Amino acid sequence: MTVREIKAPIEKEMEEFELKFKSSMKSSVPLLNKIIQYIVKRKGKQMRPMFVFLSAKMCGEMNDSTYRAAALIELLHTATLVHDDVVDDSNERRGFFSVNALWKNKIAVLVGDFLLSKGLLLSIDNKDFHLLGLVSNAVREMSEGELLQIEKARKLDIDEAVYFDIIRKKTASLIAACCGCGASSVTVDEKVIDKMRAFGEAVGIAFQIKDDLFDYGDGTNIGKPTGIDIKEKKMTLPLIYALNNASFWDKRTIINIVKNNNNNPKKVTEAIDFVIKSGGIQYAEGRMNEYKNKALEILSTFPDSPSKTSLLGLVRYTTERKN
Description:
The chain is mainly α. The chain has one domain (3-320): Farnesyl Diphosphate Synthase, CATH 1.10.600.10. It contains 15 helices and two strands. Strands 1-2 form a two-stranded antiparallel ribbon. β1 (92-93) and β2 form a beta hairpin. It is globular, with a radius of gyration of 20 Å.
């Protein structure tokens, strides 16, 4: 399924959401409005609101709370992206200049804080405390995951259990919150809400493993391997598997490349080749498919509907995408 086909059952809702989201970001400060306008124009595929709306529609009757859930997720997600670019000293976001590149770090941090407060107030003003709980938990986990990754990058002592803990917190927690909030906006049935959270977490983990595979050219002819994760000393699943199954000397050589020669293109290529030859790509693909199947299994417990079909398509899209 294409993104357009996936969106079909919620097309009207997504259009209405666009308008509501823009108005929820307004401020009385002209500079802030200018920056927010810049951010809104450069939005991505909007996967997160899609997860919210499709989850809500599959679990019940959509209402105003559903729109607020999607807006809350987008506000907090956008705030974390603005802050991430400051933390990473990144000058680009989706092929455009980042907020910090155009307006400097101080303003970028304050814009992120503003968006965060907007999301919190949107929930409090409408007494959506159930949504606020789910999303606040995700923001806490995202921060913990990011810090855990930074800490481990210094020592390069990440094993598989720590890797999964990092990606569950860093990436999967927000998608879990999307699906949990979507369900929570239309039902009070805790079992259904928990089920949708578990679904989102499984999709999020599969999504991140897929992202990690792109660093190795995805093991196919799609583009050239980039080695960006190795350059940033990120221990991803293909590399962890390769190191776990390497001889003492090979392990020592590859760790030395990641630690001390991560800016040497020839050495990075050597590390990538080592990972590919050791079966790291196939192993990571296998684990990704485990989580994809877990997500599909959860969906199979819901009655058939256009929204369920789109969520099935969304799961497959996240693990089969080319970028």
